[in-house]
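wait is this the right file?? whatever heres the structure
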């Protein structure tokens, strides 16, 4: 969500992090959780607070329900 709001591509973020596109995509798709260190690095690169990158369990349930419809 933050990437889209800022007009940033996953490929660019992957390059900034020194990670593969597939790894960043797995973070974005919530298939894999980044380490705390990586999470803070992502927040720094995107110039946002860490909490802006986190979703609550309820948020995830709502997103999953929307995707299923």
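ok assuming it is, sequence goes like this
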């Amino acid at each position: 969500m933050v990437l889209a709001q800022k007009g940033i591509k996953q490929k660019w973020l992957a390059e900034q992090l020194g990670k593969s596109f597939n790894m960043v995509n797995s973070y974005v798709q919530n298939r894999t959780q980044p380490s705390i260190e990586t999470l803070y690095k992502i927040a720094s690169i995107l110039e946002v607070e860490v909490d802006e990158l986190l979703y609550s369990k309820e948020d995830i349930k709502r997103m999953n329900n929307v995707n299923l419809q």
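Helices lie at 2-6, 10-17, 21-28, 36-46, 57-68. so i think its the right one actually
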